[in-house]
Amino acid sequence: MPSLYVHVPFCIQKCEYCAFYSQALTDTPRELISLYLEGLEVEISKRQKDAPQGVSSLFIGGGTPTALKEVELEQLLGMINSFFTMNSDTEKTVEGNPGTLSVDKITILRRFGINRFSLGVQSFEDRLLRAVGRAHTAQQAREAIQRLREAGFKNINLDLMFGLPGQDMELWQASVEEALSYTPEHLSLYGLMLEEGTPLYARYGEIKESEKDGQVDQLPDDDLQAEMYEWAAVRLKKAGFRQYETSNFALPGFECQHNLGYWRGEDYLGLGPGGVSCLERVRWKNIEDVRSYSNLLSNGQSPMDEEGKEALSLSECMAERMILGLRLEEGVNLISFQNDFGADLRDIYRNVLERYNSGDVFVFQGDYLRLNPRYAFVANTILQEFV
Ligand code: SF4
Q: Which of 237, 300, 311, 332 lies 20 to 30 Å from 28 when distance is taken between CA atoms?
């Protein structure tokens, strides 16, 4: 069974670091949301055939799904439930931001069987939230967590960011400690990325070291960011969390099944504008434009971005399995690799493995190949070797 992702491309406002496809509701006529929902219903009805046995997990992300109005949220959840089969214990996640979570919306989520919520807290310090253009306050995050718990959510993820302008170790530690005080089941820790084309990139991306002193809010340098990450990894381990992926920490049994599916190389369906799907080694992406997406679907055409369709070669699939799998604590399963690709990864990647062997970067344990956790912070650089 593939997993199912549904993209909701609307946010209250654009965060200044964000390069995801989403548009600010402040610039969006409400009728565009109706168009989006109409298009999505057609796409869902057509793609149902790709999951005849149902889906292994559901993730409604964005964007900010909870930026929709109550009636729109109901419509969205209703169409997913009526076309895709899911068990009551299938992991069903909705992500959202503080400030968009009314009691009524949470009640609707529960009524439609949503059993996991991922909340974009990022920081419990208002000054830092403002520095990156987040549309909410720390107090709204506290209220949202309380409401989710009161409504019966027993599986909550909190997203936190490090490397924010003006953030020092003390502020980072305070946010992590406050997050822990709410006893979430899952935490995702992300370092701020300066993506080209974003306001934050324009502000910081091309500033030379020598020019940084004049900035009101400096970005933490790479060393400080590494310390923030390492401190948090140790702190969360002490609090009982398992770091099951480079950026993700869970209490035992609360690992995100949806994301595990991606990292293990399983098939997925991604619906909505900008949604990405990968079935039987063919990957495609929907166009990133609500109006065109909807118009194409209502005219009986595919919303696929023709340039975004690719039949993955065997070597691309193998490289992807290595890159994604080695981000997991469990690593890459040698037997699954052999079964899926008809080859032993030790033969295929002998050169890379030997090159790093003396530095104990890679570890063989049982049926798995793992990345030594000491190299987690530089994992991206090392993993490029598999491309
Ligand atoms: S809430 Fe998320 S998707 Fe929306 S603008 Fe901010 S970072 Fe981007």
A: 300
**Could you read off the pLDDT of 163-204 as tens digits, one per residue?**
999 999 999 999 999 999 999 999 999 999 999 999 999 999
The atom of ligand 1 lying closest to the CA of 14 is 5
Q: Domain ranges in the chain?
A: 3-263, 315-386
pLDDT the model gives residue 213 = 56
* Helix/strand/coil for 159: strand
CATH of domain 315-386: 1.10.10.920
Please report where in the chains the tokens 């300066």 appear, as a residue. 194
Find the 55 Cα to ligand 1 centroid distance in Å.
26
Of 16, 23, 64, 123, best ligand 1 pocket probe by most atoms within 8 Å of the beta carbon: 64
137 Cα–ligand 1 center, Å: 15
As given in the structure block, the two tokens for residue 81 are: 């439930």
User: Is the overall model pTM greater than 0.85, yes or no?
Assistant: yes
Region for residue 313 given its phi and psi (left: phi exceeds 0; alpha: psi -120 to 50; beta: otherwise): beta
Q: Which atom of ligand 1 is nearest to the CA of 62?
A: 3
Write out residues with Cβ below 6 Å of ligand 1: 11, 14-15, 18, 20, 22, 62-64, 97, 120
CA of 63 relative to ligand 1 center, distance in Å: 5
Our CA angle for 65, 71, 74, nearest 5°, is: 65
What is the predicted pLDDT for the residue at 209? 52
pLDDT value at residue 50: 95
pLDDT on residue 212: 57
* Cα of 135 from ligand 1 centre, angstroms: 9
Torsion on CA atoms 338, 275, 254, 136, rounded to nearest 10? 150
Same fold, 3-263 and 315-386: no
